[in-house]
Amino acid sequence: MVQANDAGFDVIGDVHGHVEQLEALLGQMGYTESRNGWKHSERTAVFVGDLIDRRRDHQLDTLRVVRKMVDEGAAKIVLGNHEFNAVAYSTVDPNRWDYCRPHSPKNHKQHREFLEELGFNSPLHQSMIEWFKQIPLWLNLDGGLRVVHACWSESDIAHLDTVLDNDQTLNEQVVIDGTTRHHRTYDAIENVLKGPEADMNGHWYFDKGGVRRTKARVAWWRSTATTLRDGVVIPDSTQLHGPDGKPVDQLPNDPLRDDIPRYTGTIPVVFGHYWRSGKLTLEGPTTVCADYSAGKGGPLVAYRWDGESKLSVAKLVSC
Question: In terms of domains, do 205 and 282 share one?
Fold first, then answer.
């Protein structure tokens, strides 16, 4: 278990390089800055990952603020899929004679801001990649709180616990296996860091990057969802299309796969990744997403946890 300071934990959503929002949110929550970085006298910040990408500047500024807080004991952090992708982009798989995340135009575009600011394979870039490797993939926090980037999947976490280093951090073999399709570790990494997905049975939509999507993220926190219609997350303001290409209002009531992770635990979970928008809300009495699309102009959000077993929307704050 990881212990907090005297009061509680402030779990902060995906920052994606927006350091000015981060510093404003920290100040709003009572953190102060000194030569030792940002710190609260009684509380501990927790980052859900995805510090990088999606912004042309301030990648390094963001990393320096967060890394300083972690190094000084003022914050904790879990790995996001963007940090995992950065490690994979820099790790060679000897079996493929290529990087674990190939340097394709698509992958470079998704990672361009980070690479341009730090310089691929520069000493600074190598230092940050080594730091990413030291970040755990999930946290069980003292008093009964769980933090993960995308999905708290008991079976996938149990598998990863057998292959990760002792502090739930990456090693080279996990990066290789985690980018090898059809490997058990690949499936676990996909679920925990990117969230489970379901095929929409011929339905599709264009995502925020203009990519046509035939699969959609599953709301794993809806433990009773059994169909595509009530179990799949379609981004707000997205036009869904049917198999014939015509616009439709909703997915059919086709059944979800039985092997998709569902959360039925009673311990609260705070996560990011899902690009929420609009009014701050809970996903359920024990689940809340802290990502409200700061990377695309939305607010940066935190959940301020004080030991409660049932989460409260009043504990969500935004900047």
Answer: no
pLDDT at 54: 81
Q: Give the CATH number of the domain where residue 140 resides.
A: 3.60.21.10
Q: 4 pLDDT exceeds 90?
A: no
Domain closes at, from 216, 233, 260: 260
Instruction: List CB contacts of 85: < 8 A, sequence separation 6 or more.
Output: 101, 107, 110, 111
Note whether residue 219 is domain-resident: yes
E strands, 205-315, where? 205-206, 212-213, 215-218, 232-233, 240-241, 247-248, 269-271, 287-289, 301-305
- The range of the structural domain enclosing residue 185 comes to 9-195+261-318
Cβ–Cβ under 8 Å, residues 302 and 290? yes
Q: Please give the distance of CA 32 from its chain centroid, rounded to a whole number.
A: 26
Per-residue model confidence (pLDDT) at position 2: 44
Number of domains in the chain: 2
CA distance 188 to 201: 23
293 with 184, same domain: the answer is yes
pTM above the 0.85 mark? yes
Mean pLDDT of 74-98: 95
- Same domain, residue pair 103 and 155: yes
- Distance, CA of 77 to chain centre: 11
Q: Is the pLDDT of residue 13 over 80?
A: yes
Length of the chain: 319
